[in-house]
Structures are given as structure tokens and as C-alpha cells.
Design goal:
This protein has 381 residues and is mainly α. It contains 12 helices and 11 strands. It has one domain: Alpha/alpha barrel (Glycosyltransferase), CATH 1.50.10.
């Protein structure tokens, strides 16, 4: 069922007032999708994606719910619309009251709402995204529940995932046993983990606990030493496009260190490498999030690292992002950004992360063009 007049559907409850939110810009249309499509389940958790070809949400993901909190708070800060704050807090409370296992001090990989429980794993990357979302919710509201669970998860990340010279990507639950490596980048340690290590940096500023700061600096040094070999990483160009997404997580993780010349130089070189691969691969396979992360990176690099912004390339990236926004009569997909395009055909996934990254990239690009507010690390989704 779809949202009609704001009544209850099979995916949750909606308020008639939400239908009055403006839809005159891509950013507002994307925001309405988060509120009205059912991608956020009644319990507050956000599904990994909606498949337009089958009409079903994938399982709720703790990582994607963490991104959802950050995206909804970003939208609330820009618009003042209470519905965004309400949805963000429902997502944050799902994380603290349903997903968080206080006995294990762990967030599971996925949460099932239909009785078919997924395998019990916890991912370092997911935990970092959740922590950052919860800290954003705490800063927005002052509710200590969000801060306290974020601190507990951050301490567990220190205790459970670190090894001498890298970070375990996946642990089984309840034993918290590191899982054997697999060829996929998300199942291996790597420079991409620096994006989630940002959570440690934020926790240091929240708690003053020096171990959080030391852990972030260690992750930064390890990531910088290994990043060059991450690309291309495979002969298959579609896999390389996927790895660009992960490599851009590394670049985002470097943002707080852009005042260091070696980091700014590596960051600028990294943007150039990504753009070159995008030019080569996009006719075959293009991912919305890769375009959006590249544009966000350019804007952050200029604002925080003094790295010259190539406005021509940025304009082309903004155009490519906008072309991947879904225009449909179906509320389940209208305003969302598709995961990407293969061989000229849009893929059948309305994707929350693609949508969150895209709306932020376009919002920041609009700010840049109007010489308005500059992007900040704290609001980076």
C-alpha cells in the first residue's frame, strides 16, 4: 500500500501535515521520501533499501538507521520542519532501545521485522556510523540516552575490534569472534574504516577520554599508509566502482586532519584519482553515492583544507546526481535517489544512503553557489 492522504499504511503511520511539506527542490523531495515512503519502519528503524521491482523493503540495518538519524537531523537543521526531528528521534530510539544489546555492548548488523532473524554479526563500520548518528541526536536534543549508548558502543569498538596493526571488520555474536577474511572489501580491514573511526574522535571531544583520540590517530596513520593500494583493487570495472565508494569513506575520514599538509595533499590527490576512475567506468556502471561523495569531498576540501575546487567538475557531478533522482507517481520511490545506473538503465533500488549523501551534496553545492554557509565535518552524513 502507498501513502494516500496521510493515513496508516502497511509500513507505518503518517501525519496529514507531512503531505504539506514542499517538493519544489530535489532536497525537499528527498526529505519527503524519508518521511512518507515507508523506508523507515514503524519501529523507527530504516530499511537497507526498497526494491521497486518487488515492492518490498530489505531488512532494517543499524548502519542505515544511523545514517538516517544524521540525514533527518541535517534536514531539520536546514528547514526547521518538526517532522524531520520526530523521525530522527524515532530512529535514534530504535537504535538505543531495540537494536542495542546492552549485555553484549553491541549493535547487530541487521534487524528483522518479519520473524526471520539474520545471522548474528556486528561490523566495526556500522557501529561507527551508529555512534556518530547518536551523538548528532544528543547534540540536537541534549537527551543523555543517546550520548550514553554512543559512549558504550565506542568503548566496545576499542575493546573488541582492534588488533595490533589493523581493525577487525566483522565479529560474530555473541562470542565476538573475528570472522575469516573474504575477498569483498567490506569483509577486510582497510582504509575505508577511517570513516567510522571518526566516531572515536567525536567521543574524545565528548568525554575527554584520551584513548579515543589515540585510537583515531592510529587509524588515520594506518589508513594513510595503505590507501594507495586500495585502488583499483580488481580488474572488474564494476567492482572498482564499488571500491571507489569505500575509498571515498577514507577521504571523508581524513577531513579533520586537512590542516596537516600531508593529509591535504593526499586528500586532493585522492579526489583526482576517484574522478579519473569515474570518467572511465560511469558509462558502464555509475553509483549515485560515488558522485555525491566526490562532490561533498570537493566542498569539504575547499572549506576545511584550502584545496581549490574545480567548479566545472563539481557542476557536472551535481548534474549527474540530480539525474539519478526518481520521479514517479509512486510514493514509495518518489524523490528517492536510485542506487545507480548500469549500461544506461536505472537500478531498481530506492536507497537511503544514496539519498542521504545526494541531498547533502546538492544542498552544500547550492550553498556554495549562493556563497552561503560552508560545510562542516560535524554535519557530514
Amino acid at each position: 500500500m502507498y501513502v494516500t492522504g496521510g493515513r496508516r499504511t502497511d509500513r507505518g503511520c503518517y501525519n496529514d501535515s507531512l503531505l504539506l511539506l514542499p517538493a519544489d527542490t530535489p532536497i525537499h523531495a528527498a526529505g519527503r521520501w524519508f518521511l512518507q515512503s515507508g523506508i523507515q519502519e514503524p519501529c523507527g528503524g530504516v530499511a537497507r533499501y526498497f526494491r521497486s521491482d518487488t515492492g518490498w523493503n530489505a531488512n532494517i540495518s543499524t548502519e542505515i538507521t544511523g545514517y538516517g538519524v544524521s540525514a533527518l537531523l541535517f534536514l531539520h537543521a536546514r528547514t526547521g520542519e518538526p517532522a524531520y526531528l520526530d523521525a530522527a528521534l524515532r530512529a535514534a530510539r530504535f537504535l538505543t532501545r531495540i537494536a542495542w544489546d546492552a549485555q553484549l555492548c553491541a549493535f547487530p548488523f541487521e534487524h528483522s521485522s518479519n520473524g526471520s532473524e539474520p545471522a548474528a554479526f556486528t561490523y566495526f563500520f556500522d557501529c561507527g556510523i551508529v555512534v556518530r548518528g547518536l551523538l548528532a541526536a544528543w547534540r540536537a536534543t541534549g537527551e543523555t540516552e543517546f550520548r550514553d549508548v554512543a559512549i558504550g558502543s565506542g568503548r566496545a569498538m576499542l575493546a573488541d575490534f582492534r588488533q595490533r596493526d589493523s581493525i577487525h571488520p566483522i565479529l560474530s555474536l555473541p562470542e565476538k569472534i573475528p570472522q575469516p577474511s573474504q575477498p569483498r572489501w567490506s569483509h577486510l580491514p582497510g582504509c575505508y574504516q577511517l570513516k567510522s573511526a571518526l566516531a572515536w574522535r567525536e567521543l574524545f571531544h565528548t568525554t575527554g577520554e584520551a584513548e579515543f583520540s589515540r585510537a583515531f590517530e592510529s587509524a588515520l596513520n594506518t589508513a594513510m599508509a595503505s590507501a594507495h593500494d586500495f585502488l583499483p583493487g580488481d580488474a572488474n570495472r564494476e567492482i572498482v566502482m564499488d571500491r571507489l565508494h569505500a575509498y571515498e569513506y577514507f577521504l571523508e575520514g581524513m577531513v579533520p586532519a586537512l590542516d596537516r599538509p600531508e593529509c591535504a595533499r593526499l586528500f586532493g590527490d585522492g579526489l583526482t584519482r576517484v574522478a579519473r576512475y569515474v570518467d572511465e567506468i560511469a558509462p558502464l556502471f555509475a553509483r549515485t553515492d560515488v558522485y555525491a561523495q566526490l562532490l561533498r569531498g570537493r566542498l569539504l576540501g575547499e572549506a576545511l583544507g584550502g584545496i581549490a575546487l574545480d567548479s566545472g567538475r563539481a557542476h557536472e557531478e551535481a548534474r549527474a546526481i540530480a539525474e539519478l533522482q526518481i520521479d514517479s507517481q509512486e510514493t514509495r520511490v518518489q524523490g528517492a535517489f536510485a542506487f545507480g545506473r548500469k549500461e544506461g538503465r536505472e537500478m531498481p533500488f530506492a536507497n537511503p544512503v544514496s539519498t542521504a549523501f545526494a541531498l547533502q551534496a546538492l544542498a552544500w553545492w547550492d550553498d556554495w553557489q549562493r556563497r552561503a554557509a560552508r560545510p562542516t565535518l560535524e554535519t557530514l552524513i
